[in-house]
Amino acid sequence: MNNIKTIIIHCKTLKERKLNMQLQMHKFGFSDYSFYEDYDGGELTRDVIEVNYKSGINDQDNWKKKVLLWGPAALYYHNPICNIPEISVSIKYGKLFQKLKHSDSDMILFLEDDVIIHDDFNEKFELYLNNTPTD
User: At 35, phi and psi to the nearest 5?
Assistant: First the structure.
């Protein structure tokens, strides 16, 4: 795993999560990893949310259109109103995609700071990666 650029989406106030992720990165041989900590929920203002979170906080019609892409049953599994931490993570992903679309990395692995990596992760990842089309 040491040759795959890995970015961990992290909330700065959750220090124990960062420590846990550092331990996991070491255990599984990740050497090229970093934490993305911008746009934490406690730092978001209404203006930042409006500019960066396009669906709006309480836009029920837009939410329904997006969720229905997964089929009608998805309406029962998704809360129509995102809370601030969920909005924060959405903005973080969006910002990372904007930054990394110009990256020269062949592959980037995104993880959130609460992931628990399974003991056979490296083997499964290699297996799935080898069976993934190159395009």
Answer: -105, 135
Q: What is the pLDDT of residues 41-72, one digit of tens each?
A: 999 998 888 888 765 555 677 777 777 777 87
Match 């500019």 to its residue by tokens: 51
pLDDT band at 92 (very low <50, low <70, confident <90, very high): very high
Q: Phi then psi for 6, rounded to 5 degrees? A: -125, 130
CA 75/CA 64 separation, integer angstroms: 7
Q: Which amino acid is at 110?
A: F
Residue boundaries of the structural domains of the chain: 5-54+83-130
Distance CA 75, CA 79 (A): 8
Q: How far apart are CA 27 and CA 119, in angstroms?
A: 10
